[in-house]
Write a structure and sequence with these properties.
The complex is a heteropentamer of chains A (478), B (450), C (236), D (498) and E (102).
Chain B (H helix, E strand, L loop, with lengths): L2 H4 L9 H17 L2 H4 L5 H14 L4 E5 L6 E5 L1 H22 L8 H19 L3 H20 L4 H31 L5 H10 L4 H15 L7 H8 L2 H22 L8 H25 L5 H22 L1 H7 L2 H26 L4 H7 L5 H37 L1 H16 L1 H24 L1
Antiparallel strand pairs in B: 1-2
Chain C lengths: L6 H8 L3 H23 L9 H11 L4 H9 L1 H20 L13 H24 L7 H17 L11 H23 L12 H25 L10
Helix pairs in contact in C: 3-4, 4-5, 5-8, 5-9, 6-7, 7-9, 8-9
Chain E lengths: L2 H22 L3 H23 L9 H32 L11
Helix pairs in contact in E: 1-2, 2-3
Classes of the chains: A mainly alpha (478), B mainly alpha (450), C mainly alpha (236), D mainly alpha (498), E mainly alpha (102).
């Protein structure tokens, strides 16, 4: 075990930051930024550690698995942590310009809690601890959505809260069944002791359904667009980029490690729902008249891609799904930020009137466009690499119908992204006074979008990191 | 990757002078064709002829290979082409003088350029020693001549020009095909080599017919003569002077040089061609008498002469030995035809300037286009209908169908409705999915346990 | 875009048709049956980690196994859970002013009762905190009782003095989580793992954490009941 | 990696970096922008010169960066890529000069030139791509970089054109992607190599290989504007003239055609492809496109639209040359890749000059324009005759080899296609020339701008004249060393070596 | 079957009952209560099954889990109620509207 437990620090630091922000509301913004930098450093440290020494296990309280709670960092959790760090830093920088003082007081502690919850979730190796982090995450996220105020945001937040609680409870019931079946909560131990039984199957159904609800997989996505679209821009960004991914991450962990099911039926069912999400989200996104709604439905579609890996089940497919997750996190954060800039500048986000705004915010539009490239899955971008891997997996497994879905989804994405981009080239007169957008907000969006593009050029490194600890069980898996 | 090392750049030339000379015969007029380069010169068209004159003065047979030009071509002069060149120089000089006479109009820049380009084409074609070069120059000559016909003229020359242009394109197509067939047969595209090779190839018929049709079109041989009367009727004096010596002569020269006459024995085709030639002569006489226009006389004379030439050619095809014996006369014939037609044209101009001839006005006034002008128009109109109307209309109707589909609000409503349904039955759907999961899991489990 | 409130859909959403209810019942019964079946097939021999807990109870610093699990073996859960409480409060506060309910003046009975009960409740809370080390009880129970006392006070119309409503209140609210984090961090600084108590200090540390947590939980619950950020004096 | 290993990447970066810098230049820094543009273009040309020299001297230029496990981003200079890279970087220089003149004083120039440079960077990437995934990467980048140029004017028509362009190209890209992935799944490699790399897979994968071929070609055909994927191209002519030049000659259409070259020769190998029986359908499609494009061009009154349909027709010559199995036709196809670019860019430059100087957009407005703008129209005339295939211009050489190749391959019917197309070409170009030179000019032009003594701005006039002279030179000097024809011949020897 | 399982079955029953209420009722307060009922069901399952082993002391871990769960549920309920009050203040009714914001 290495000298410095970077992973633990990545959890404690934002917690401490949250309390500091809470205690000193006037300095919330600088305190938050400092914490963000610290967390990024922790993630980098953990990355270095994992890359050097392989997967890490950390027994909290020194008790070890059956009794205590373990933290576990392998390639999968490391990448999640890192993408959270990058997006989180971007969101922090963006938020320092976005919120007025009054809102900032509430935003920063909640955001720090949320970040802490995310890090804790990605590092946890204990299914009950996962439940706690999930709740921490969910409550913080709901509170952040409600921060926007107004009927839309509050209704969205309410629905989101109910959905989140329902999902958590289903998950918790599953946890109960698993614990009473095997007497342990640690993922690795569960995997060892796993034996199929009706209780396990019920737990699997309950936990999957609960997590799917939280991940907003079609047809359980209904809560996502209103919540994500009505939240403040940085919150939309972190919800779409990170929060929905958290529950997917748990699902992935359970699926890969705990449930030793090769049952093709459930995989195909998930794949089918994913495919439906891709198409439905794309179609709905295309139909939207408001930019943030469009982006939110785009998230629904992109989440669908993640589930295409389940029926494929091969190493390459998992890698593709995870890569999509990473690049989508970056790209979608950038998109929501760009939309936030537009909203902030022009006072509205009606797509049809974007031509009044778009040309006056070239950086934001560029960010939107670059992020769009990744969303569409065009090269060179992280989205492309992900799509390539998924396509390859589909081709290799002979399940060519997923190829069609992937391609159709890409086309739909192109349609809705360019529906927006097109307005960048006409210049209409401004009808009202515009508000200046701070440069930090524009650059934060652009830099995140650029990182999403960059992911397409440096793929071997993240893919190599992903393999640490063999989260996908090596080449033969599936 | 090394193919081009072996290609010689410019191969050693024994006589640098002949290279310069031969190249400058088409080269100088080509340069002068650029208005900017001749703007200071007072007699550009005459100056352009100087290299040709010098070349005529050189007594020996010279020829060069220019491997880097086009697909590797050659220029040269021998006894036969010397006569042609001499004829051309004389005619061109005369025409240049005529052209220069009414100078003073700045708009004639275009005309001068066309004149010089045609000059390049005709001299180059005479000097060319292989088919590609000949084809290139004769094409240039053709389009240049079209410019000469049309430039600065009114409706009548334009119509002549249009018809000539159509002929020209068709002829070039035919000749291009012939050229391809030749190139397919043999690598070296020198005239002699091609004639030999084609004659020995299994089916020289296609090549022969392409060559004959192509050059017959260019030379205005009956029944492919339609542009000739139009051109003679409307051309300005300088151009009328050139008609015999340039397009017709080059056309006939092409036939002589390209067709494997004297190498193959095609009595049937020969007979047909002879018949055509005879018919041409008959037609020329009849039509010339019937139309009775002074200005058209050279045209019918040309048809008559080319008919005669066709008879000779047919004889050559039917009886190679005869052609080999008397074939050289063809060049003499061409030269004299050029001079003769030029003389005739000049004479008629001169006569016309003296005596007014009302007959031609009456003929022109009836306005009915001959059939050969009508049907190309019809073809174009038909094609227009095909391309312009049918296809877009098909597309339009298809688009309308799609548009109707798009208009149907049902799609929109369906999308809206389902989304609202999903929102409304929020938790019920969750239940369904939960059940689905559990059931699938159970099924999976039972099959797995069992 | 105009926003229309369709009255028809409102009435529809208010009432759910009977066939649907029936269908729902059938489906839910199926679900209940399935879950029940799953539960009933569990082996009656518990494979739980009870014996592990029992084996390590001595070194945990407390003798009540539940407290040992909560504050030692799985103290990390509890740490995060303190965070959950605080987040909920932050969320409630960030919602802004909740429209004040009609102020009903507390009757004399309530007033008297609260004066009587609050000290008792505080005492009970202290007891529960103390007893948690070896018998049922502990920080949450104590905190809840404390919270109840706070609620009672609030019902009786008592409001926190503006002087304490700012930083002092916030410090109290964060004490539980703060002490937890500080203890964990200090333990890490001295070379142990996160929340790896030295066996000799375990009892004391747990008590310290529990005390802080009790205070925070109580305050948080009361604050949650109040619903909005108390009017504070000017912040430092 | 030594210097040789970085050169291909440098060529791509020479315009990519310029583009990125230009994006951030303020609109009014005209001089800086112009300098940057020209520096980039000249630098690229110099680097290309180095590469040509090196390739002739058998240097191996290859940049290899890891992209995915087992798949590299490969930029390599081989004979084909040098042909295309020379074309695009040469024409880019000319087009840049032209664009600087054309857009003088118009808004959003930084954006325009930024994307302009990106577009060329992508094209050069397409040219230098050493495997299919690198090709795909730059091919899609090209799509993205071109879209802003097409909608640059921001009018409704421009948006519509942009939408059409995207609809086609993104769908095409998707097909290409599927084909590529499938191929990778079967072959496990995507490296281009002379005579292809899939031949050994023939057993058991025959049907799949045919399907992949269809997917790849369909994806590429969109950019190459083969019927029925062509209709974006005429719509895209609403873009500014330099963009049209870029679309039709330098980059987009060429990228599609070049891709087909790559797929047929370096993925499948021409002999194997012929053995699969996929080349004849391709040739048929190309033939149909040739005729159909010309037919449509015949009836367009909008000059640029007519030119666009002409491109549809002409680019298919390249495809036809590729699809006719045989070395001579290959020479024709490859050489037409260059020749068509030079000729068509001339025509578009001229059309742009007419629009910019006199406000002429329609053929019917061109009466007597030769008097007013003799240099421009002279260049146009040369380009048009080149397109018709009149000797001794560049188009003649292409047509010559195509025809000969068809005969050589025993596909006599192609001759008739070529003849018909020439006829139609003449049908739609010659009336323009006739009107321009021989009809009387109108009293006033639609929107005349005065440029003093010259007929138009220097930067607008020089490019078409240069490319027109190039058209002439490519025909006249076709057999000279280093000519595209010679280069195509040497490629052919590589692809057909026993 | 021991009484422990009976409790556990009651727990699952509460869970489904809560789900039913969550689906059927439109008023937010009822929905929140339904969630709480569901939570109670889960807790019951957890605690009941902890005492399965005859004679042995009940497993303390589920108890700890339930305590944690209860705190979480309390927090969530508090937030939900506050949110509900705000929703009611904004929209005039304590229901989730199906109207999508246009």
């Amino acid at each position: 075990m290495a000298a410095i437990p970077w992973g633990v620090m990545a959890i404690l630091l934002p917690l401490a930051g949250a309390m500091a922000c809470f205690l000193s509301p006037r300095r919330a913004s600088p305190l938050g930024l400092i914490t963000a930098l610290g967390v990024v450093a922790c993630a980098a440290g953990l990355g270095w550690q994992v890359a050097e020494q392989g997967a890490q296990r950390y027994a909290i309280g020194g008790w070890g698995a059956p009794l205590g709670i373990d933290l576990y960092a392998d390639g999968l959790s490391l990448l999640m942590l890192m993408v959270t760090a990058v997006v989180g830093l971007g969101i922090s920088v963006y938020s320092s310009g976005y919120f007025n003082r009054e809102k900032a007081v509430n935003f920063w502690p909640l955001w720090m809690f949320l970040w802490s919850a995310l890090n804790a979730l990605f590092l946890s190796a204990d299914i009950f601890n996962l439940y706690v982090t999930l709740e921490l995450l969910g409550l913080a996220a709901v509170a952040l959505v409600a921060l926007a105020g107004g009927a839309d945001a509050l209704t969205g937040a309410m629905r989101y809260l109910l959905v989140s609680l329902l999902g958590s409870l289903a998950y918790l019931l599953g946890v109960a069944l698993l614990y009473h079946s095997f007497g342990c909560l640690d993922i690795a131990l569960l995997a060892e002791r796993m034996e199929p039984s009706p209780a396990v199957m019920a737990a699997m159904g309950l936990m999957s359904a609960g997590l799917l609800l939280k991940t907003a997989l079609f047809p359980l996505h209904f809560w996502l667009p209103p919540a994500h679209a009505s939240a403040p821009a940085p919150v939309s960004a972190l919800l779409s980029a990170l929060v929905v991914k958290a529950s997917f991450y748990i699902l992935l962990r359970l699926w890969l490690d705990v449930f030793p099911v090769t049952a093709a039926g459930l995989g195909q069912l998930l794949g089918l729902l994913g495919a439906a999400a891709v198409l439905w989200g794309g179609l709905q996104a295309l139909r939207q008249t408001r930019l943030k709604m469009l982006i939110a439905y785009s998230t629904v579609a992109q989440l669908g891609y993640l589930f295409l890996a389940f029926p494929l089940g091969s190493n390459v497919a998992w890698q593709g799904a995870l890569y999509l997750l990473l690049s989508h996190a970056l790209a979608k954060a950038a998109m929501f930020m760009a939309a936030g800039n537009i909203l902030c500048f022009g006072g509205h986000d009606r797509i049809a009137d974007l031509d009044r705004v778009a040309q006056r915010l070239p950086l934001s539009l560029a960010a939107f466009g670059l992020a769009g490239v990744s969303i569409m899955g065009l090269p060179p971008s992280g989205g492309f690499i992900a799509k390539w891997l998924l396509l390859e997996a589909a081709m290799r497994s002979g399940q060519w119908w997923w190829v069609i879905i992937l391609i159709l989804g890409g086309l739909l994405a192109a349609a809705y992204v360019f529906k927006v981009i097109g307005y960048a080239f006409t210049q209409a007169v401004m009808t009202h006074e515009a508000r200046a957008v701070p440069a930090t907000m524009e650059w934060a969006a652009l830099v995140l979008a650029l990182v999403a593009i960059l992911l397409g050029l440096v793929a071997p490194w993240p893919l190599a990191l992903m393999e640490i600890g063999l989260p996908f069980g090596g080449e033969a898996a599936g | 990757m090394g193919a081009f090392y072996h290609d010689p750049g410019i191969r050693a030339v024994n006589d640098v002078l002949s290279v310069i000379l031969l190249l400058s015969v088409p080269g100088l007029p080509l340069l002068l064709a650029f208005p900017a380069l001749r703007s200071r010169l007072s007699w550009p068209c005459h100056i352009a002829l100087l290299p040709a004159v010098v070349l005529l003065a050189v007594p020996e047979v010279v020829s060069i290979e220019v491997p880097w030009l086009l697909l590797g071509t050659g220029l040269g002069i021998d006894a036969a082409s010397r006569w042609l060149l001499a004829m051309s120089v004389v005619l061109w000089a005369a025409a240049a003088t005529l052209l220069h006479a009414p100078t003073g109009q700045p708009a004639d820049d275009c005309l001068t350029t066309c004149f010089l380009l045609t000059l390049v084409g005709s001299l180059g074609a005479i000097l060319a020693t292989d088919q590609v070069g000949f084809f290139a120059f004769s094409t240039l000559m053709g389009y240049g001549f079209y410019g000469l016909l049309v430039a600065g003229g009114d409706e009548a020359p334009r119509r002549a020009g249009r018809v000539y242009l159509g002929i020209l394109i068709l002829a070039d197509l035919a000749l291009f095909e012939a050229l391809l067939i030749a190139a397919e047969t043999i690598e070296d595209l020198g005239f002699e080599a091609v004639r030999h090779a084609v004659a020995r190839s299994p089916s020289p018929g296609l090549y022969l017919s392409m060559v004959l049709v192509g050059y017959a079109l260019k030379a205005g041989v009956w029944p492919l003569h339609f542009w000739l009367p139009l051109a003679f009727r409307s051309a300005r004096p300088a151009v009328a002077l050139l008609l015999g010596g340039v397009p017709i002569a080059i056309g006939l020269l092409g036939m002589v040089r390209w067709a494997p006459v004297g190498e193959i024995n095609f009595p049937d085709i020969g007979l047909i061609i002879q018949g055509l030639g005879l018919a041409a002569m008959l037609y020329a006489v009849l039509a010339g008498l019937e139309r009775a226009q002074l200005k058209l006389l050279p045209a019918y004379a040309a048809i008559l002469a080319t008919g005669l030439f066709a008879i000779a050619l047919g004889t050559g095809l039917a009886d190679p030995a005869a052609w080999n014996r008397y074939g050289d006369l063809a060049h003499v014939f061409i030269v004299s035809l050029g001079f003769g037609l030029a003389g005739l044209a000049t004479a008629i101009r001169w006569l016309e300037a003296r005596y007014h001839c009302p007959a031609m006005l009456a003929r022109q006034a009836d306005g009915s286009n001959p059939w050969f002008e009508r049907w190309p128009g019809a073809v174009v109109r038909w094609a227009a209908r095909m391309g312009f109307d049918t296809l877009p209309r098909l597309r339009a109707s298809w688009l309308a169908e799609v548009g109707r589909l798009r208009q149907v609000r049902a799609w929109k409503r369906m999308l809206d409705g389902s989304e609202r349904f999903l929102q409304r039955w929020t938790f019920a759907i969750t239940l369904f999915l939960l059940l689905g999961m559990v059931v699938v899991a159970f099924v999976g489990a039972s099959s797995w346990i069992g | 875009m105009k926003k229309t409130m369709n009255p028809k859909s409102m009435t529809e959403s208010g009432k759910i048709r009977t066939p649907f209810r029936l269908l729902l019942m059938v489906l839910l019964s199926a679900l209940a049956a399935g879950l029940g079946y799953a539960v009933s097939t569990l082996s009656s021999q518990s494979p739980g980690s009870g014996e592990w807990v029992a084996a390590n109870l001595e070194t945990s610093g407390v003798s009540n196994p539940v407290t040992a699990v909560l504050l030692n073996f799985r103290s990390y859960d509890t740490l995060l859970e303190m965070g959950v409480l605080l987040v909920a409060l932050l969320g409630v506060w960030s919602l802004g002013g909740i429209p004040e309910q009609r102020e009903s003046s507390p009757g004399p009975v309530l007033d008297t009762l609260s004066r009587l009960l609050v000290p008792v409740l505080i005492l009970v809370a202290g007891y529960l905190l103390w007893v948690g080390a070896h018998a049922p009880g502990g920080a949450f129970q104590a905190g809840s009782v404390l919270g109840a006392a706070g609620v009672l006070l609030l019902l009786a119309g008592w409001r926190l003095d503006a002087r304490f409503a700012g930083l002092p209140l916030r410090i109290t609210l964060t004490t539980g989580l703060g002490v937890f984090v500080v203890v964990g961090a200090v333990l890490m600084l001295v070379g142990r793992r996160l929340l790896e108590y030295p066996p000799s200090f375990a009892g004391a540390l747990i008590l310290l954490i529990e005390a802080a947590a009790t205070l925070s939980i109580g305050m948080t619950l009361a604050a949650l009941f109040l619903g909005s950020r108390p009017e504070a004096g000017p912040d430092r | 990696m030594n210097w040789d290993g970085w050169l291909p990447l440098l060529i791509v970066l020479s315009s990519l970096s310029v583009g990125l810098v230009i994006f951030f230049l303020p609109e009014e820094r005209v001089a800086t922008r112009t300098t940057l543009n020209l520096t980039g273009a000249v630098l690229k040309l110099v680097l290309v010169g180095v590469i040509i020299w090196g390739v002739v001297h058998r240097h191996h230029y290859e940049t290899r960066l890891p992209l995915l496990p087992g798949l590299d981003l490969v930029l390599r200079a081989d004979a084909e890529s040098v042909l295309f890279v020379t074309l695009s970087s040469g024409l880019w220089l000319v087009t840049t000069v032209y664009a600087i003149g054309y857009l003088e004083g118009s808004p959003h120039r930084s954006r325009f030139f930024g994307f302009f440079s990106l577009c060329v960077a992508a094209t050069v990437g397409v040219a230098l791509a050493g495997n299919l995934i690198t090709f795909l990467l730059f091919y899609e980048l090209l799509t993205l970089a071109t879209y802003p140029l097409i909608v640059h004017r921001g009018t409704d028509a421009a948006h519509q054109a942009g939408r059409a362009y995207l609809t086609y190209t993104i769908a095409g890209g998707a097909l290409l992607l599927v084909g590529t992935v499938w191929l990778y799944g079967i072959a496990g490699s995507l490296e281009f190599s002379y005579r292809g790399f899939v031949a050994e897979l023939a057993d058991g994968h025959r049907a799949a290989l045919i399907a992949i071929f269809a997917l790849l070609i369909a994806g590429l055909a969109v950019k190459a504007a083969l019927v029925p994927f062509h209709s974006w191209l005429p719509q895209a002519m609403v873009a500014p003239a330099p963009v049209s030049a870029l679309l039709h000659a330098v980059a987009v259409v060429k990228a599609g055609a070049f891709g087909i070259v790559r797929v047929v020769y370096d993925v499948y190998g021409i002999e194997f492809a012929a053995g699969l029986g996929v080349t004849l359908p391709l040739a048929t499609v190309a033939a149909v496109t040739i005729i159909y494009g010309s037919m449509r061009a015949l009836f367009q009154d909008d000059l640029k639209r007519r030119l666009a349909f002409s491109t549809v027709s002409q680019v298919s010559y390249i495809v036809l040359g590729i699809a006719l199995t045989g070395p001579i036709a290959t020479i024709g196809g490859l050489v037409h890749l260059v020749h068509q670019g030079v000729m068509k860019i001339t025509l578009f430059f001229c059309a742009g000059n007419l629009a910019e100087t006199l406000g002429i957009h329609k053929v019917s407005e061109m009466n007597g324009v030769g008097r007013r703008m003799p240099w421009t129209m002279a260049a146009f005339t040369i380009g048009a005759f080149g397109m018709i295939g009149a000797p001794p211009l560049a188009g003649f050489i292409s047509k010559w080899y195509l025809g000969l190749g068809a005969l050589d391959a025993g596909q006599g019917w192609v001759i008739f296609i070529l003849a018909g197309s020439s006829l139609l070409n003449a049908g739609y170009f010659l009336p323009i020339l006739y009107a321009a030179w021989f009809k009387a000019p109108p009293d006033t032009w639609p929107a005349e701008r005065s440029f003093g003594r010259r007929e138009t701005a220097w930067a607008l006039l020089a490019p078409p004249v240069v490319t027109a002279l190039l058209t002439l030179a490519l025909g006249l000097l076709a057999s000279a060393p280093f000519s595209p024809l010679q280069w195509a011949r040497s490629i052919t020897t590589l692809e057909y070596a026993p | 079957m021991s009484h422990v399982f009976l409790y556990a079955l009651v727990g699952t029953g509460l869970f489904t009952l809560g789900l039913y209420a969550l689906i059927v009722h439109t008023h937010l307060l009822r929905k929140i209560l339904a969630i709480n009922v569901m939570g109670s069901g889960v807790f019951l399952v957890l605690v009941a099954l902890a005492a399965r082993a005859r004679g042995a002391a009940p497993d303390p871990v589920p108890h700890a889990m339930v305590i944690t769960g209860i705190v979480v549920a309390v927090s969530a309920t508090a937030l939900a109620l506050a949110l509900m009050v705000r929703v009611r203040a904004e929209t005039g009714r304590a229901e989730l509207s199906e109207e999508r914001p246009e």
